Every structure is written in C-alpha cells, then in structure tokens.
Amino acid sequence: MEAAYLLELIDESFARVESHYRCLLSELEEAEIHDFRVAIRKVMPIIELAMDIEEESRGEIRLRENYSRLKSYFKDFSDLRDIQVQIISVSAYKGLEGYAEELKLEEEKLKDSIGQKIELWSVEEVRSSLESALKSTFEGMDSPELVRHYMRRAKVLRKKFLKRIKELNEDYSSYHKLRLALKKYRYHMEMAGSDGLDEVLKRYQDELGHIQDLTVLLEDIRRRGRVKEKALRGIEKERARAAEKFRKRYLKNLKARLKIEGH
C-alpha cells in the first residue's frame, strides 16, 4: 500500500460522493439514495485509518469534525431509505395494500423534508477540508508504515467481526449486529484492493440485509397497529427461512473462509 494509491483513492471516492449528491438534489429515488450512502461508506474507512494514524493530534480533531458531518449526511437519509425499502418489500405480500399506501404518503413527506435539508449541506466544503487533512496525513508516509497502521486496524475490525459471528443466535438483532461488523470489516479490506474476499463478504452482507429489511418491516407494521397478525405470517416465514438459510449455508462457508472454529 502506497501513499500515492491512497491519495488517488481519496479523490475517486469523494468524486463519487459529490456525483451522487448532485443527483439527489434533483431526485430522491431509492437507488440514488442507496448509491450515495454506499459512496460515503467507502470514504469512511480512509478517514478512520487517518484518525488512527493522527491519534490525538490537531489533525485528528479536524478529521473527526468533518467525519461527523459526513456521517450525519448518511444518517439523514436513514428514515427515508427504510420507508423506500419497505415499499419495495411489502409489494410481495397480500393483505398489506393499505399499509403500502400509508408508506407512500410518508415517503413523499420525508422527501419534501430531506429535499429542503440537503440543499443546505456543504458537501464541497467537507470534501475540500477532508481531502486537505487526509493528504496532510498520508503524504510522505512510507509503505511499511501505512501497511502497519492498515493491518492494525484490520485486526481490530476482524476481531469484532468474529465476535459477532460467535454471538449469532435466535434473536434477530444478532443478525443485524453481525451485518454491521461485517460491513465495517469489508469496507476496510476493500481499501487495499479486491482479493476476492470482498465479493464473498458482499454476498453475505446482502443476505443479512434481507433479514434486517424484513425485521424493520415487521416492527414498523406492528408499531402502527393497523394490520392483523394473520397478514404478517408470510413475512415471518420468509424471515425465518432467510435466517435458517444463512445459518446452514452461508455461516458455514463464512467460517471456512475466515478459518474459525465452532460457534
């Protein structure tokens, strides 16, 4: 890993964030919101690596301030993204037509709210400040030093990931915790370039994401209290099937890939 490679990666990553942001200013569609959030996720590991290197220096403070702003942009879309995913998911189940219409009305309200908010964002300013800080961190660092910091962080994230694998149980929240740890580990590993593992992890992440989407859907329907439990049986069965599939097929393969034992 060379400093020049990381600096090029920074430019490419921020360019994607800005490109998707400009698209969102004209249309808040589900696919574009997803791509914008993914673009931010791919920037985060670079900043986190730099913060580890800088530690308690003044440079780390500047990085953390802008990191928080970028993270807030990601979170601002969380509610709208959840609603849009639910609209897609609910179409596969009978007896939820009224709920689907309610979601669409809520989607439009959220679009109006977030649409006004993102016009006030300073994405270009955040990019400029972060790029300056990141270049200050990475420029002049030799390859062995960069690799040492990269591997140290990879070790920490891998440990958290393995912990979540071993903690997986019948509680569906454990699947969500595993997915979050997997994403952090995967995006960090992607920083060094693909070795095939990131595509495998992406497949596992998607399977866990499907389980989480169904969990969010069930929780939201029950919170609103306007649908009979009988209408939710299909969603419950699909979630149970997806969880069993992950445990029996993907979890075994994942353990083999990561060379870990037991559960």
Automatic annotation (TrEMBL):
Gene3D superfamilies: CHAD domain. PANTHER family: CHAD DOMAIN-CONTAINING PROTEIN (PTHR39339:SF1), SLR1444 PROTEIN (PTHR39339). It comes from Andreesenia angusta. This is CHAD domain protein. It comes from the Bacteria. InterPro entries: CHAD_dom, CHAD_dom_sf. Residues 1-259 form the CHAD domain.
